[in-house]
Amino acid sequence: MYAFIDSLPPGSTVMISFDHEASSLPEIRPLALAVMRHAFSRDIKLIGTALLAEGTGIGYRLMQQTAAEYDKEYGKDYVYLGFKPQFIAAILSLGESFSKTYPEDYLGRIYADLPLLAGIETYDDIEGVISIADGSLTTHWIEYGAGR
Q1: How big, in percent rounded to 5, are the helix, strand and coil portions of the chain?
Q2: Poorest-confidence range of 10-24, 43-57, 89-103?
Q3: Are 71 and 103 within 8 A, CB to CB?
Q4: CA–CA distance, 39 with 134 (Å, rounded to integer)
Q5: CA distance to 6, 47, 86, per residue, from 67 (Å)
Q6: To the nearest whole number, what is the mean pLDDT of the chain?
Q7: Are 66 and 40 in contact (CB under 8 A)?
Q8: Intra-chain end-to-end CA distance of the chain, in Å
Q9: Where on the phi/psi map is residue 68: left (φ > 0), alpha (ψ -120 to 50), or beta?
Q10: In this structure, are residues 21 and 54 in contact, taking their beta carbons and an 8 Å threshold?
Q11: Predicted model pTM
Q12: 139: part of which helix (H) or strand (E)?
């Protein structure tokens, strides 16, 4: 993961998915912070999401905290899309249209009004997806997302 982030040119965009439950936060938090700090230090733009409802608020708070450390601006340097139920359907839907899957972000802002998301419609428009998971959800990103 470190090598992947390090290989990206500044200005690249990566999706980070908080695919965990609250009970795993002591293990997940340091990993999530390290990934986001590395990305923000390299001027990589982040799009946050969550495949589990419990990871939604946690992911948003961690992303806000880390962005503040690097003076990153919401909507320009990072965006948090939030949670969609039925994680396999959400992964497949993102492969067809980010904006139709998430017409609004986690805060209720319209997709088209967020500068970071201009020109991002499918997985082809980002460099990759990083799943911060406490179980097998990463496998679903590979199985269902890679085909899209």
Answers
A1: 50, 20, 30
A2: 10-24
A3: no
A4: 21
A5: 18, 12, 28
A6: 88
A7: yes
A8: 21
A9: alpha
A10: yes
A11: 0.91
A12: helix 137-140
